[in-house]
Amino acid sequence: MQNRDEFYKKLKERLEDTTTFPTKYLYKFIVPANKDKTKEIENIFNYAGAVINTKDSRTGKYTSVSVLVDMPNSDEIISKYLEAEKIEGIISL
Fold it and tell me: Superkingdom of this entry's organism (predicted)?
């Protein structure tokens, strides 16, 4: 839990230091190849403007999901990561 909190604290600092908001932000995730998992990610970003691309791994075991979306501030970016964390088997890149 502490490592997770530390990670998001550092991410917020980096975003604040290097990004002018609002900005287009690219999220990248890897999930087990399962349409339900991909749909869960799509539901998190279920508002106009999000461009979502998926690509299955060579072996077909995993799906990479890229989401390009306008974000108003660093807190909203982190909020979406925290929502995505709840998806079983997800890896955030």
Answer: Bacteria
